[in-house]
Amino acid sequence: MSLSHTRTELLAPAGSLTALKASVNAGADAVYIGGSRFGARAYADNPGEDDLITGIDYAHLRGARVYMTVNTLLKESELDDLEAYMRPYVEEGIDAVLVQDFGVLRRLHELFPALPLHASTQMTVTGPKGAALLRPYGVTRVVPARELSIEELKAIREESGLEVETFVHGALCYCYSGECLLSSMIGGRSGNRGRCAQPCRLLNLLDDREHFDGRSSILDRKDARHHLSPKDLCAIELLPELIRAGIDSLKIEGRMKQPEYAAGVVSIYRAALDRALDDFENGTDRFHVSKQEKQMLYDLYNRSGFTTGYFHTHGGPEMMALVKHELTADETQARHSLYEQMKENYIDKPLKIPADAEFTFTALSPMKASLLAGGIKVELEGAEAEAAQKRPLSESRIRENLMKTGETDFFFRELHVRTDGNCFVPLSVLNDFRRTALEKLRAEMLKPFKRETSSEKSPIKAQEDSGTENTARSGSSLKISALVSDRNQLTSALASKEADLIYAEAAFLYRSGDPVDQALAFIRECREHGKEPGIAMPRIDREGSSAGELKEAAGELISEGLAVFLVRALETMADLAGRGFASYIRADASLYTFNHEAAAFLKEQGIKADTAPVELNKKELFRRDNRASEIIAYGHLPLMLSAQCLVKNTARCTKKNEIHTLTDRTGTKFTVRCECVFCYNVIYNYLPLSLLQDGGDLIRMGFSGLRLEFTTESAGEVTDVLRAAAACREGRQASPGQRPATDRESTRGHFHRGVE
What we know:
CATH topology of the largest domain: TIM Barrel
Distance between the termini: 47 Å
Number of strands: 30
């Protein structure tokens, strides 16, 4: 196998300008850093414009690349700020931009067509089809979901033709990145907006039998565990495998950590990666990680030990920090000493660039200089040297002053001074000449990175709406759809007169028998009852653990009368669209359309229908074009989607598609469904979202439909909610006696508060 890149990249975190410099000084090939806005680490010490430009130049002069993070979802009101915000960094030569939002992706490619874009792990790329879909938008690299195996990463690399970047060290999220609403829904701090409060790192109880109600401390419970807290990733011993798999970039997590941490981890991985690359290039097999290197990584930071992540496993208790490890006094001292060492080696000492120079001084002739660094050569002339009246400047005196490069980026590795022995130059003039020469060298070294950008936007590729006005529709034109998860719910929905469309969860079809046979029977049953049938596809689509049979049978299902696929994953969307069925796709809320550019992205794939994001508030929804959108008007929203399994991590894998309860420190109980068919867990909000009292607003917003999502509801509850939805569609509120029991304790989610 041959790699398209010459050397696998070591990519380091930079939460500040100091961290950027420390990582570069320690040997990083590239760093990723956020600016003052739109980054997934809003609480890092993100630099302002001047500091970030300084950081870009600092890295480029030392042969490192800088990737800027713009990897959050942007609201409609923020899109117009994007161009002015990004232009200085693009012109300065930022090497790539990391994005999550389809709209940001589309807008940046239109504004700056030559700018390389990287698809963030927040985009939840899980396969080669989803990755390839992004190529026409300037994406040159994907950062797939951290849950993928080495073989899955290799397949994306080989089949999509895009570079692949993967995390090798640092914190792991319990949830698939980009699929987590836990912090958003329980505390209003959205991970999709860079403000995650990390409630997953706190203690919980699984299937609590003592009925903890939050009035006492969860710390008093011996069965409390950090059920949602993985150990930190450390894949240093897997470097040879990752190189052989063709992985282009190895990423260290840690923008919220101190610069000393970043420098320390980079320095250790730098040495190890160089050894692994030497083995690969020379055909040898001598790679080894020393005990000292492992101990240093452990001392720098770990969360109850390390895990090698998902590269060779689909999860399990060995990956989890179920019990928090408290640092001993010796461990605290070891960390402190190591941080002091890193500070001394990589923060306090500037990394100077070696330059070779020749200066010539001849009486009554211009001073001359020739400088060479990084393959760039500059020559210049200065003021005329005077003829010495008394004591000429000696070569040694000239050399002594020229060597004082001070706060510049350079030091003179070789310095040749030529003089006729009869000249005099004031030291201030000499110093200015040296300074001017080094500034010219610096400018010439940075010149190849600069970009000229046009102030005119590229034409929009597809017709699009600004999203600032709504076309209200009558309540009678609003379709009511019911998403069902079991047979009792389906029976109730079929018997109702209120439901126009019924989605069957794919997992429900799989649990009931052969999925294609079950889907065909479901379609016929819906048609017999005058309902449109739809299938809600898996929330994650991975090779070997997805609804492959349903995708293969898509043509047959549509011929039989299937009206729509509710699609939750980028890979599913790309797969079905690639088969020619884009017009039968409705994108779910997890394929975020926070802004009209994101909606336009979906339209360009042939997708005509979507779902309103659940993190937009009432005011923002009114400004959105909702004519092709459903809104989730009722349901227990999924807060976390994980490849980990709470049952497997505390007992053993049962493959029984069970439902469990997770209790947090306040006594709040969350429902957990083990979707063993697709090998993931879904944690649902403890209260159902209900907008059924807001019918007038929903009608005026111009939605095409109201969706009711049923998870654990009984058949009777399904009937009650459908009746309340009918009242909502008519623009009236159900009377207190008619409101469903599930609606009496409910939440409006972000409908009124929204997210920052």
